[in-house]
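Before surveying the methods themselves, let us examine one representative protein, written as a sequence plus integers encoding its fold.
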Amino acid sequence: MKLIIGLGNPGFKYVSTRHNIGFLAVDKIAHNHTISITVKGFDACFGKGKIGDIPVLLVKPQTFMNISGISVKKYADYFKIDLADLIVVHDDIDLPFGTIRIKAGGGHAGHKGLISIIEYLGNSEFIRVRIGIGKPPDKSMVEKFVLETFTDDEMKLLPSITMTASNAVTAIIVSGTQAAMNQYNYRATNQSTKGDDTFSS
């Protein structure tokens, strides 16, 4: 079974904020594969289904972002998920808006959701699907920026972005992580996303 985690904050006030694009992407995955994320358990909403012939569990933690690891740990332990079968979908301020990049393992670049997951799992070697949300002009504005709602122009692009993220997750599951990285990271590189600056979020 593959465990797919979308990161975000619970509650109506956060629905359309940049930090919640992980939730929006997992909702798109659910829609594309006819999976209902309506069951509640382990501090999250979740749904079971299949992508291709592979069983998957879609999870949206209902803790706040900076303690996402609590829920992720519970699901990983209960369903005995190997780290190679854990996919975390999250926002990334170090990528231009709308860019999708797949990463296997690595650090957290200051992302508080990833920090929490790594802390609770005791390991960082899981797969990430990073969705670019752009960044503010100054590092001191990051916390406010990620909790702002998308602009009208950004909202118009969200359906296409979340569809691409859904397709990237599908590619990981159906074709394997390396093949998916070859497809989606090549595209990201050609959108001039080589910057390595990191901000805390």
